[in-house]
Amino acid sequence: MKKTFKLIDLDCANCAAKMETAIKKLPGVIDASVSFMTQKMTIEAEDVDAVMKDVVKCCKKVEPDCEIVL
Amino acid sequence: MTRKQKKTLYRILIAFVLFVVCLLLPTVWLSGPIPPLSVVQDRNGCGTYALARWPLFLVPYLVIGWDVLWKAIRNIMRGQVFDENFLMCVATIGALIIGEYPEAVAVMLFYQVGELFQSVAVSRSRQSISELMDIRPDYANVEREGQLVQVDPDEVAVGDVIVIKAGERVPLDGKVLEGNSALDTAALTGESLPRDVGVGDEVISGCVNLSGLLHVQVSKPFGQSTVARILDLVENSSEKKAQAEHFITKFARYYTPIVVFAALALAVIPSLLDGQWGTWVPRALNFLVVSCPCALVISIPLSFFGGLGGASKQGILVKGSNYLEALAEAGIVVFDKTGTLTQGRFSVTAVHPEGMEERELLELAALAEQFSTHPISRSIVTAWGGTLDQERVTDVEEIAGHGVRAVVDGRRVLAGNGQLMDRENIKNVSDHDHPGTIIHVAADGKYAGHLVIADQPKATSAQALRELKAAGVRQTVMLTGDAQGAAQAVAQELGLDRFYAQLLPADKVERVEDLLRDKGPKEKLVFVGDGINDAPVLSRADIGVAMGALGSDAAIEAADIVLMDNDLLKLPVAVRIARKTLAIVRQNVVFALGVKLLVLVLSALGYANMWAAVFADVGVSVLAILNASRMLKAK
Questions:
Q1: Candidates A9, A13, A40; nearest CB to B301
Q2: Share of chain B above pLDDT 90, in %
């Protein structure tokens, strides 16, 4: 399953890359892509909704200002 | 500018004014000891107290830098140490400690100006790229209870009738029930020539209705309409990242810690040796400012994004940065013949009469063939072009697999292949070795000549192949199921390097695999087809290009790059855009890394101050962004 989320206030390209790396390492996540240019995040997982809680937590840790629109 | 950007701008202005005030203020002399104060000697040698300058400079410093400080503290608490906020804090606080107050404030100010500029530049280019791709229809006009109402295209069901007024965007795919108009397809195909549509024609969502009022019966729900599929594809294209992008994010992960430890070493080791902490610590602080990798990391996705946007403006949809990157290395381009290099429809290429005029022969054949629906018959009627009087023709008989027999103006006319002529005992049939299908014509038992009918190359194919060569493609190859003769004629006319004829669909995959084995290590193989029956080859090639994809789901699905219209000239354009994108990516990497290295070396030697270091950070990012935004104007 694949889902795309909009990101608000993703300010730096390096943070986007860091977020992507961190999310990819989460259990249950098959693949993730954070696009700084389109301010979007695509998560591929067995059950996207189930991992989203971890994803949000992970994003908050890497880039506290960035908000995921669920 | 967004609200956040405006807020930053005001903060910068306030901090700048405060900073200037601080610089202009004279030292205030006081008579009593109030900390933080320092003892100074006045000109007469009398001891007195002076208000230290640093608390003053602390005001603009905090106005401009409080969020950087706050973010640094917050990120350290979360275990994220080496981020740019932390580095800026260490660098500027270090400057404050060693007494360079104006420098500390100025560097922070300059940094924020750069960050603001960078943020504005990125959102500008993001916006202009999004505008390029903006083909999303806002509403559809539906007739409900005799009244025209505007509804969300999503709410319109298949079979509903929508009304499209002049100047409006076609919101959904459908068929024209009523009205005539010209459609502007530029947003989809990059083609500026409007397309005429009338009753019964299919219209595609995303086009703009230029002139008349159209009543259209919807054939697909919005989610499956052309415009929704294209938008989906374009929006997801930055998800597939290029090698260069992966490389740079990986590089950034090592770059920052290395520079930070280098800074630490530079601050401590030489100072322990010569004891001049005041010389080495400021130099090390410069290192910290330069160590931020943002300029590198931002410029690459931005360049690719610009390339994707520039391409889609030309009617070229690239499904990912990785394909754009691969296309720049295109060495072998393999074409399917029918529908790609050729028009995929038959037309009369030669008329060879015997004992009559060319027009006469053509008219005779057209009259005899006018009732047939066979593509070859249609091509003869089209070639004749004039009106055909049905009453001149009687006793029409179609002989399957052979041709037509009819009575035209009282003459017994035969039109068909050689076998028909044999069967009817026609003598003196001339048989040239023409590529294509031959239709012989006989009148009253006498041979009258023949027409050559072939699938003609597209007008732009030869030029497209020349331009591909000019763009650096080494070899062009054609694959076709046609006979050797027909294939050779087309290959020679268009100037292809190689061709393989009489191939079955499965053979095409095999040929492509052979070519893949033979290609150079850094070359990429591109396969171009019309998306019909060549999905396996499209996916086997390094890059599969489908053309004429307007309305073809299979092609959009199977290909990596989609040319929206049938013009092969779009292919060299795509290659040029890819090459230019990669060139800009390379320029940005070399430029950003070069400036950073230079400033690092100069800082270590003591020739660069913190201003240069801030330039190497934010200044370089801004220049890289400006360079990347050139892609938007790519042709």
A1: A13
A2: 12
